[in-house]
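Could you join me in thinking about how sequence relates to backbone shape in a protein? To get us started, please write out a protein record for me. Would you write everything just below, so we can both look at the same thing?
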Amino acid sequence: MPVETTHLGICPAVDPLDSTSHILDPNIVGAEHYDVAHGVQKIFQDYKSLQDIIAILGMDELSEEDRLTVACARKIQRFLSQPFQVAEVFTGHLGKLVPLKETIKGFKSILGGEYDALPEQAFYMVGPTEEVVEKAEKLAEEHS
């Protein structure tokens, strides 16, 4: 996925399925962080298992539940793009520092379907989820 992710312009190109850490333990990071991280990994695993079906039959042949899984995975993939201060020159996006609790809250909200109605473009190169909502509103204004 990192090459595919890089082609999408998503930086850093991290694959949550291949990126593991012994520190990701509920006794170290806490139960919520652990559960959310595993939820993200599960969504990506489910998305990966749907890739062949999508390639052969297209999105239209997926069940509603599978379409929601794909949409959630793509939003999370874009939400993983991070506007680092050191990368401002390369990305053209102002660097941001998002506290860990806000990051966990954001992923938990996406996994919980709170932002299902927002376009995946709103999740790209933003900080906390409040910025996702703001970006979605701007995108809606541009398209109206």
Q: What stands out?
A: Helices lie at 2-7, 26-29, 31-57, 64-79, 88-91, 100-111, 129-142. The chain is about 60% helix and 0% strand. The radius of gyration is 16 Å. Residues 109 and 115 are 7 Å apart (CA to CA).
